[in-house]
Design brief:
With about 450 residues, the protein is of the alpha/beta class. Strands 21-20-19-18-14-11-10-22 form an 8-stranded parallel sheet. Helix 7 packs parallel to helix 8. About 0% of the residues have low confidence.
């Protein structure tokens, strides 16, 4: 056990405990002390949407690197958090006993045997939970360096209409529609489906004729070109995994996706690192300068790496640094499915919640899953990050008539998303959807949402 032991006197009727999830899609929320927090509904959900190697207790609160307690007494909010975005980033536990909340660090020691680096700081009185977290974040970045607060571009993204079946013709149709409809779109981003296989990022699917040609078309319309990559995943069908089975993190199990088993790339293997540089350098060389990198949690998974002295978090941070070096300082880098605190200082924008979906409720009840309820909850709970760690991305605006309570989702985008992206087939929008898309696509939202 760690020596960390924080005992906080609380007013049970008014106290709140803030659980911070591990990655973009992990539920993050403030709970009354008598509430049960959200937990994964299955092992598969935990592996792909929470911290894979941790099992959070059902009868206690749990934060990954960060947990806060508002005692409800008028005293300042306690923010218990890791001192650094690197290293071990320990898990934190809060137990409620009568009129007390007790916070401990079950991780105890870091991988190298040193004590987990955690601090308990008390925010000034009068700040609510969001304000206290913003106050803590200001202190955190003052130590670890300011974020790259680059004004975000406006984006059209192929994902939420075409999913993995997107074609070059689909991109070209919407590129023309942006002009015809007079939409303020800076970047046309090709999402999942352009590649031959997960992990084979330099081979096109048969639905695309030529990546340089579609990038040239995008540039010809006066737009920037963007692309989606899951850099730390290797699919079981990929030629890359078949030819280089030694490039994976041994013992890490990211589960399955795209109807195949998945493996996690080990960037501490020099050949795998060189491959990562080649992939992103090659994509950048085609003229792409907006990169949405997804399923990033795989890069931080625990397991046996080529360099056993490097923690999962530090290997992950190294991988992001490799990508940044390969794409250059002027490209826009958007993280998704990403360990949150370990990404501080390394991305321009960050998805802060699960995927949006046409339905309000997650289909299996797990709040890490695509749904308006889950995406909106995280966008609100992580509002304090925006303008401090990065530009928050609540996810794309989907404004079609098929979307349940689409007006509610548009309000979330307007209030809580610094990055504005549309992801409909543009010519299919009805008058409300088109007008809302036109109104919400605006640039440069970098000012903090929480003061």
């Amino acid at each position: 056990m760690s020596d960390l032991y924080v005992e906080i006197e609380v007013a049970p009727a008014r106290a709140r405990v803030y659980e911070h999830g591990w990655q973009s899609w992990s539920p993050t929320a403030a709970y009354r002390v008598g509430e049960r927090p959200a937990r994964p509904v299955s092992r598969a959900r935990r592996a792909g949407n929470y911290r894979p190697e941790r099992v959070a207790p059902a009868d206690a609160f749990w934060g990954e690197g960060l947990l806060a307690v508002d005692p409800g007494t008028g005293a300042g909010v306690h923010v218990v958090a890791t001192r650094s975005p690197g290293g071990s980033v320990p898990s934190l536990r809060a137990d409620v006993t009568g009129g007390r909340v007790v916070v401990t660090c079950p991780d105890g020691a870091a991988a190298d045997g040193t004590e987990a680096a955690v601090d308990d700081v008390i925010a000034p009185e009068g700040l609510d939970l969001q304000e206290a977290l913003a106050w803590w974040a200001d202190r955190f970045v003052a130590v670890h360096g300011p974020a790259r607060l680059v004004p975000p571009p406006t984006v059209w993204c192929s994902w939420y209409h075409y999913f993995t079946k997107v074609t070059q013709a689909d991109i070209e149709e919407n590129l023309a529609a942006i002009d015809d409809l007079g939409l303020d779109v800076d970047v046309v981003q090709i999402d999942d489906g352009w590649q031959a296989e997960i992990g084979d990022w330099l081979t096109l699917s048969d639905r695309f004729r030529s990546l340089p040609s579609i990038v040239e078309r995008i540039h010809g319309h006066g737009r920037r070109a963007g692309i989606w990559v899951a850099p730390f995943f290797l699919g079981g069908r990929s030629a890359t995994l078949r030819e280089h089975p030694d490039w994976v993190i041994r013992g890490a199990d990211p589960g399955e996706g795209w109807d195949q088993p998945l493996a996690a790339l080990d960037v501490t293997n020099p050949a795998a690192e060189a491959h990562l540089r080649t992939v992103f350098g090659s994509l950048a060389a085609t003229g792409i300068d907006y990169f949405k990198i997804d399923f990033l949690f795989a890069g931080a998974m625990e397991g046996r790496r080529a360099d056993a002295s490097v923690s999962g978090v530090d290997a992950y941070r190294h991988g992001l640094s490799v990508i940044r070096e390969a794409i250059g300082p002027d490209a826009y880098l958007l993280g998704c499915g990403a360990p949150q605190l370990p990404s501080v200082g390394l991305v321009d924008g960050m998805r802060v919640g699960p995927d949006i979906a046409r339905h309000v409720e997650p289909v299996d009840g797990d709040l890490s899953q695509p749904s308006q309820r889950a995406a909106a909850a995280n966008a609100r709970a992580r509002a304090w990050m925006h303008g401090r760690f990065w530009v928050n991305d609540a996810d794309c605006l989907i404004a079609g008539a098929h979307v349940e309570r689409r007006e509610d989702w548009a309000r979330v985008i307007e209030g809580y998303s610094g990055l504005r992206a549309s992801s409909d087939r543009l010519r299919g929008l009805d008058p409300w959807g088109l007008e809302t898309t036109r109104r919400l696509l605006r640039r440069g939202i970098v000012e903090p949402f929480v003061r």
